């Protein structure tokens, strides 16, 4: 399961994916400029939102796995 590394950061204003330049790393307190709408996104908020989405995704995957497993068990 490599979905963890694929959590996308989205612009808080227009929901376009935020892309960091390859040699640039963002850290807490940074502002990320959106290429689509030029708004500045607060890094911490972006990460929070991305984390929530990631958790939701993992939750769904876990649920699907459980259903499969339970389906086999109770066949
Ligand atoms: Zn934007």
What this model shows, in words?
The chain has about 80 residues and is mainly alpha-helical. It has one domain (about 10-75). It is built from 1 helix and 2 strands. The protein is elongated and about 55 Å long. Residues about 1-5 have low confidence and may be disordered. Bound molecules: zinc ion (ZN). Zinc ion (ZN) binds near residues 11, 14, 36 and 37. Zinc ion binds near residues 13 and 36.
Essential attributes:
about 80 residues, mainly alpha, two-stranded antiparallel sheet, about 40% helix, disordered N terminus, binds zinc ion
The tally of domains stands at: 1
| Rg from alpha-carbon coordinates | 17 Å
Q: Structural class of the helices, strands and pairings?
A: mainly alpha
Shape: elongated
Report, as a whole number of angstroms, the end-to-end distance: 26 Å
**Which consecutive residue ranges, at least 5 long each, have pLDDT under 50?**
1-5
Averaged pLDDT: 84
Q: What proportion of the residues form beta strands (DSSP E)?
A: 5-15%
How many runs of DSSP E, i.e. beta strands? 2
Helical proportion? 40-55%
The count of helical stretches stands at 1
Ligand inventory reads:
zinc ion
Summarize the entry for a quick read:
This protein has one helix and two strands.
Task: Map the helices and strands.
Elements: E1 31-33, E2 40-42, H1 43-73
Antiparallel strand pairs: 1-2
This protein binds zinc ion (ZN).
């Amino acid at each position: 399961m490599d979905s963890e590394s694929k959590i996308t950061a989205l612009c808080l204003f227009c929901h376009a994916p935020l892309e960091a330049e390859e040699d640039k790393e963002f850290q807490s307190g940074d502002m990320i400029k959106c290429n689509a709408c030029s708004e500045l996104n607060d890094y911490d908020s972006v990460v929070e939102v991305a984390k929530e989405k990631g958790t939701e995704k993992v939750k769904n995957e876990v649920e699907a796995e459980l259903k499969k497993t339970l389906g086999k068990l109770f066949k």
